[in-house]
Each structure stands twice: as C-alpha cells, then as structure tokens.
Amino acid sequence: MMADSGSNEEVAVIGNTDITSTETESNIINTMVERGTALLRKMEINVAEAEKRTGKNTVNMQETYTVYLIETRPAETVPGGGAPAASDTLWRRYSEFELLRTFLLVTYPYIIIPPLPEKRAEFQWHKLAADNLDPDFVERRRVGLENFLLRVASHPVLSNDKIYFLFLTEEKGWREAVLETGFQDKVDSRLKSLSAMFRVKNPDKRFTAMKQYSDELNTVISQLLRVRARVADRLYGVYKVHGNYGRVFSEWSAIEKEMGDGLQSAGHHMDTYAAQIDDILEEEEHYADQLKEYLFYTDAIRSVCKKHELIQYELEMAAQELFSKKQQREELATGTVRVFSLKGMTSKLFGTESQEQRESRLAALEQSIQEGEETLKEKNTECKEFVQMAWEDIERFKEQKDKDLREALISYAIMQISTCKKGIQVWSNAKDCFNKM
Amino acid sequence: MFSINLEMQEVGLTNGTPVETSSPASTSSLFNRLQLEDDLEADVRDTYADSTEMRDLFVTVDDPKKHVSTMETYITYRVSTKTSRVEFDLPEYCVRRRYQDFDWLRIKLEDSQPTHLIPPLPEKFVMKGVVDRFSEEFVETRMKALDKFLKRVADHPVLSFNPHLNAFLTVKDLNKRQGLALLSKVGESVKHVAGGYKLRARPAEFCAMGEYLDTFNQKLGTIDRIAQRILKEQSEYLTELREYGGVYSSWVGSEEELRRPLEGVAGCVTTSCGALEDLGDNMSLDFLPVLREYVLYLESIKNVLRKRDQSQAEYEGRLEAAILRKQEDRTPMPLEVEKCQDKVECFNADLKADWERWQSNKRHDFKQLLTGMADRNINSYEKSQAAWESLITLLQDKQTEDKTSETN
C-alpha cells in the first residue's frame, strides 16, 4: 500500500510537472508576444538553408527565385522545457522579408529598423560573381537574412510584434495578415506628406546632428567599400601572379640537377600561395557585409529623422494655424485690420457686417480656436512621445553600432593576422626548399 | 694550388705577346691541363665551402662620384684591392675607374683569354631615355653590378692572374690605346674563322650546354617578367591600400567610441604599406639586377661556345685538308693542324671548367636570390602581423578596462 501510494504520488507529481511545463510554455509564448521580454531568450531562430525554385510569377512568366528556410524552436534554456522541443520550419522568399521590413518601417516610425542584406551584390571586386543566384551570394544573403531576423528578435520593441511572430511561425496566411493591418494606407499618406516640401522652423538639434552623422557614415562606409573592392582586386593580382612562379620553377627544375628538387617543391608552395587568396578574400567578404549592414542602417536612421521632421512640421503648422486664428479673433473683436486682406477689403467696400453676423463669426472662430488648441496639444504630445521613443532607440542603436563595429574591426584585424601567418607559413616552406638547392 | 701555378705560367706567356699565342699550344702544358681537370672540378664544387681560405685577392667597387667637365659628365667608382699575391707590388691599391674602363678591361680579358668565360658587365645603356643615368638608383645598381663583375673576375683561377686586371686594379691612368688596336685584330680573326668551315659534330656535352642555355634563358625571361609584373601589381596595390587607410582616418572624425579602433586600423594599414614598400624597393634593387646579370651571362657563355665551335671547325677543316694531302703525298701531319687540335682541346677544357664553375656560382646565386625573396616576403608579413597584433592587444585591453569600470 505504502509503496503503491508512493508511486501514485510520484506519477501525479510527474503528471503535474508535465502540465505546468506545457502551461509555462504557452505562457511564455503569450508573454513573449504581449509583454515582450527579449524573444531570443525563449526561442531560437535561424535561417537554416536556401533553395532555388522555379515558378510562374504574377504575369505568368517563368522565374527562378530563392527561398530561405526559417527554423524556430523553443530555446533549451526554458525552465522545465523537458525534452528538446521540435523545431518549426517554413520557407520565405526575399520579397516576403521585404514586406515584413516595410511593415515594421511604417508601424514603428520612431525605431531604426534593421536593414535587409543587399538585394543585388554591390561593391564587388571583379572575381566575385554578380549573379543573384550565385551560391556564394545566396549563402551570404542567407547569413544576412538570419542576422536581420535576430536583430528584430533582440530589439526591445520590435521583438513583440505580432506580425513578426507570425512571419516566423505561420507559413500560410501571413501576407494576408500583414495587408489586413492596413499599413499600406499609412505608407501612402506618409509618402505624400514626405514628398511635400516642408521646412521645419525649429529643428531639434539632436536629430539634425543624427541626420548629419548618418550622412557622414553613409559617405565614409560607401567610400571604404569602394576602395576595399579595388584593394581586393589588386591583392588578388599580387597573389595570382606569384602562381606563375609555380609553373616556371617546375619547368626550370627539369633542366637542373642539384637544384631540381628544391625548385620543384618550391614551385608547389608558390601554387599554394596563389590559391590562398581565394579563401582570404572570401573571408573578407564577411567583413564587407558587416560594413554594408551599417551602410544600409544609415537609411533607417534617416527615415527616423525624417519622420521626426514631419511631426515637428505638423506641430509647427498647427501652432501657426492657431496663432493666425487668434489673430483673426482679435481683429474681429477690435475691428482693426493689421494685415491687408481680402476680407478687410470686402468689409470696406460693402460696409460693416451686422452685429449678429459678427457674433456668430466670432463664436465659430472661438470654436475652431478651441479645436486648434486641442490639436496643438495632441501634436505636442505626439511630438514629445516620438522624440522620447526615437531618442531611446537612437541611444540603443548607437551602443549597438559601437559594439558591432568595434567587434568587426577586431575580427578584421584577426583576419589580417591570419593572412600574414598564412603568408609567412608558405614563404617559410618555400625558403626551406630554396635552401636545399 | 697546382692549377694556379700553371695558370701563372700561362699568364707569363700571354704577357705582351699577341692574342693568337695566348692559349698554351704546347702539348705538355695541355697534358697537364687535362690531368688537372678532375681536381679542378672538385675545387670548383667546393668553391663556396672554403673559398675564403683560398682567396688571396679581394676587390671592391664602391663610392660613386660624379664628374662634371665641359666635355662630358660621368661617374667614377672607387676600386679597392687587397692582396697577398706576389704579382702585386703593394698589398693594397685604390684607384678610381669609370664605366668605360671596366669595358676596356672586359674587352682585354676577352681578347687575351678567348677560351674562358668572361663575366658580363652591366649594359652600357639601360632603357635609353627612360632612366636617368645619373640618378642615385641607377648609379647604385650599376655600381653593384660592376662590383659583382670585378669580384667574379678576381675569384677566377685564371682570369684573376691576367695582367690587364693587374693594370686595371693598380695603375693610376690606364693606357687604353694598346687595347683598342688589339681589339680590331681579334675582330678580324674571329670573322675570318666564322666564314670558314661548317662544324661536323659538336661533342654531346657542348650540345647539352647549348640546349641548357636556351631553356634557362627562356625561364630567366619568364621569371623576370613575373617579378616585374609582381612589382607592378604590388605598387598598384600599395596605391589603393594607402587610400584605404586614409578612409579609416577620415572616419575617425565622425565617431566617439570608435576613435581608437579606427585610428588603430588606419595605423596598421600604414605600417603594412611601409612594409610592402620596402619589399618592392628591395626586390627591384636586389632581385631584378641578378636576373639581368644572368641574362647577360648567358650571352657571354653563348659567345664562348660559338668561339669554341669555330675553333673546332677550323681544326676539322685543316685536318680534312691534311688528310687529303696525306693520301696524295704521304707527308706527316703538319704542325699547324696539331696546333689547331691543341687549341680545340684547350677550349674544351677551359670551357668545361668555366662551365662547372659557372653552374656552381649560379646554384649559389639563385639559392641566395630565392631565399632572399622568401625572407623579404616573410619579413614584410611579420611587420604587418606585429602591427595588427598590437592593435588587438590594445583594443582588448580597452575592452576589459571598460568592463571593469562598468562593474565598478
């Protein structure tokens, strides 16, 4: 009996834990979406592979495109997670990533939205294929897309986005869900207002500085990438020309007696040297991608700054409108015309209006002034909130940028050291051969 | 040692006598010479093992000086000699010579020692119009080549005893008139022989030499082209790399936290540029001239080979004529034919010895040249590696520093 009850209890306990664990798990997902502690702590995200597909596009034309496999699984560190949870996988096209990003851009105008990897290879040195379906390019883009997803997932605000979550977890119906949010209307109105020429009277100096910084960063990184591509081209040449030594040493060794063996094997080392450059530059491409991410980030910064300008402009417009209404009220009340106006002219030409008319006009004006005050208040709050949220994200971004670029520079230095070591190794080997001659 | 004595004897014969008799014609001396051949070869093989012990004549060409007169502008070089040989009155000499004096010496050597391989002089004009003859770089390169030439002559067991060398090293003012007269004479005789007979059969070893020279010449040409191309690629790379470093420097201005890493990277790129520039300078100053010297050397060897063929042709021609005559009137082989035969034998022996010596020198020189190339590349990589490594240390120190300050 004792033993039985004991075992029963145990079973119960086990059953209990099981329930709690599933509960916690579903809770986790809920909290994740609702309260949004960093998504990454709860979920592993990766873009596992890329695949080439052929299909018909909207205008019924045959096209080849690449799809990327997104793999998500609950993180193993989740307490009480039990057996490793099965991973969820789904395929997405680059264009779907683009749609997701546009959605985020419109929905979170105060956030510097992480950029996507380049659509077409830019800043290439000549040996790299510019073909979009080139395996190396696809692979680098896979890494870039994964990086994008991880950036969003680790963002304090973006990681809570429902659409983003669906992007990761719901293969079907996602596009419809995005379109249902009606974000496209916002895009249109935004574009319209952005295209209108506007000048802000009292720009926020911090945002002006940020905008200037993003311009500088854009200039310097694109220059860096351009020069780097040329440097890579030249370095490629230097290494590859050394490969000719490999051939000529080997041919020369055929007519030599004592020197022959040394020359022959030194020639092999020269071949090795020439071959090294392919790996070196392939590795360096990763560094270029890191820089490119920040080059594209500059657009995201600019878009936040522009949005701020727009809001500031709307605020200023509201204030001005209110001011002119107040002025009208004053004119109406005192009967003085400060500025030459058509109204003033008509009143002069057709005599003054009746007292009643004046009263009702005044009342209407009063009403619209009150509305104006409201709008101004709203705009003021909107602007303040925007500035606060945007600046918070800018600060976060700055920190992230300093950390990332610092690490990129360090890893670049490590890469250079490895290049030097490889060079020293192969020349030392060659030297041993020369010494045997 | 015996070989040196023999050569001295030969030089004694040559002294003041016309070129035609300069090579020993007597059968006895020839016999000795052939006897010695094996020993000589052994000596040559070990030239670099104990060369300093054997050497008793040291020459250096240095200290170029520019001379400007109303007539011409030219460069002279200091030629210093240290020796324990009895042929020299003093143990040390120091004279100034210009390029045409070296040229005179070489012609003299070629005339008086036609069976020997005379080291090449640098070309009189290197890329006409492109190179400034009085530029520091040109003078330096030429000086090194002249030094090499004179050292090779001074190290040669036969040539180093040539009285013209003695005069070149010791006499204040060279009397070059005599030399010029001799030159025209030799020119005639060479022409005369060249127009003569066709060679019956070249001995296999000289055929092999000719083939070797052709292939080696081709390979040298390729190596020279590769080396020049590498220099060009490297200098273009350097130009781009400099600009690349500059971009990092210009970035520093827009950053706060990233100043140090960016400045660091810019610094490392500059260091790498410096290392690369040194590499290029060294290669163009030390590597290319050696290739150049060997291209010219090959010409000299081909020349001697040609002369050898001519002397064989002459011998064969005369022999044929003599045999014909002998069949008719049974007269003994004329002395003339025997002389010719001696001359051919002498040519063959000298050329073989010089060939062995040259091969050994070549092996040593290219070993040194290529090892040097490897060393320079290693050195260049090491410099830039050190720079990058110190940057990493700096940045990682900074990081831990920051972390500790954060926790504090």
UniProtKB/TrEMBL annotation, chain A:
GO MF entries: phosphatidylinositol-3-phosphate binding
Coiled coil, from the record: 355-382
A Pfam family recorded for this sequence: PX
Keyword rRNA processing appears in the UniProt entry: no
InterPro entries on file: AH/BAR_dom_sf (IPR027267), PX_dom (IPR001683), PX_dom_sf (IPR036871), PX_SNX4 (IPR034902), SNX4 (IPR034783), SNX4_BAR (IPR037430)
GO CC terms of this entry: early endosome membrane; plasma membrane; SNARE complex
Similarity field: Belongs to the sorting nexin family.
Official protein name in the record: PX domain-containing protein
Lineage, highest ranks first: Eukaryota, Metazoa, Chordata, Craniata, Vertebrata
TrEMBL record, chain B:
Keywords in alphabetical order: Protein transport, Transport
Positions of the PX domain: 55-176
Keyword Transport: yes
Record-level Gene Ontology MF annotations: phosphatidylinositol binding
InterPro entries (alphabetical): AH/BAR_dom_sf, PX_dom, PX_dom_sf
Any single GO BP term: autophagy of mitochondrion
Domain of life according to the entry: Eukaryota
PROSITE patterns according to UniProt: PX
GO annotation, cellular component aspect: early endosome; phagophore assembly site
Protein family according to the UniProt entry: Belongs to the sorting nexin family.
Matches recorded under PANTHER family: SORTING NEXIN-30 (PTHR45949:SF1), SORTING NEXIN-4 (PTHR45949)
Designated name of the protein: Sorting nexin-30
Organism the protein comes from: Pogonophryne albipinna
